[in-house]
Amino acid sequence: MQVTKKVALLLLSLVLFLSISACSFGGNKDTIRVSEVTRSIFYAPLYAGISQGFFEDEGIDLELTTTWGGDNTMTSLLSDGADIALVGAETSIYVYAQGATDPAINFAQLTQADGTFLVSREKLDSFEWDDLKGSTFLGQRTGGMPQMVGEHVLRQHGIDPHNDLNLIQNIDFGNIPSAFASGTGDFVQLFEPQATLFENEGIGHIVASFGTESGSVPYTVFMAKQSYMESEVEKLEAFTRALYKAQTWVEEQPVEVVAEAIVDFFEDTDVELVAQVVDRYRSQGSYATSPLVQPEAWDNLQTIMDQAGELPQQVDYTELVNTSIAESVTN
Prior knowledge:
Blueprint: H1 2-26, E1 30-36, H2 44-51, H3 54-57, E2 60-66, H4 70-78, E3 84-87, H5 90-97, E4 104-111, E5 116-120, E6 136-138, H6 145-156, E7 166-168, H7 176-181, E8 187-191, H8 194-201, E9 205-209, H9 210-214, E10 220-225, H10 226-231, H11 233-252, H12 255-262, H13 271-283, H14 295-307, H15 317-320, H16 324-330
Parallel strand pairs: 1-2, 1-3, 6-7, 6-8
Antiparallel strand pairs: 3-10, 4-10, 5-8, 5-9
């Protein structure tokens, strides 16, 4: 009887120990709130990092919210509604130029090129950029990176976007694909998966990549307020370490494996279409394979903004880019 009591007490103690241990080790995750500017296959490494458990492995409970638009995303960050914003690097320059006392600092890049494609209504056997002259062109929002990059590429090919084209920019971002599908425009600048979907359905034909033509640029980056950068170094290091693992994983895995890993983030999207888009983006180097933002890419960003008349002031690379975290996890 005495032995039975001892065994019972021992088992009870073991259960209590395991329960306390589970609470101690399982409940110590650091919550990081991330606001993403949109939901896009362009951001595949982020979703892969979540689905493959890379953030969880680093002790991060990642709360991801889609805030739909650069203004909303930056408002979320600056008002402490998010710890990290995933958005275009140009927004950090806009905020800085407005005299922010706690500016947004770029600490890791997710995409390193523009993600849009030039889609023609007619199938062209041999596309030349001069084919655009005199055409009706469905562009993107004035001041946004897609439009600025688009204009930059057009100028590189001797086309004045505001004089050589019938440029339409008064259609809301979400309605551009449907406007083209209904017959508006000879050419359109589209993100994926819409570009590939239109090509598959015979609505349009991809004739050029703005990302390939424009070169390296910190197109979509993770940024945090300077105060958060200073107070939460270990959190950001863990986040960036997980991101780097995800970037490497996406680069190395077959596109079908990547597509299966992220398809649940895209409701009603066929996994084969996701694989097509991942293949297109990866083959042209759209996904950054390292979180480190390069000085040349930062300079290219400001050149593109300046040409578009949207650069409020030149900002030194070291002023708004923090490389210490990315360097610590990649070296």
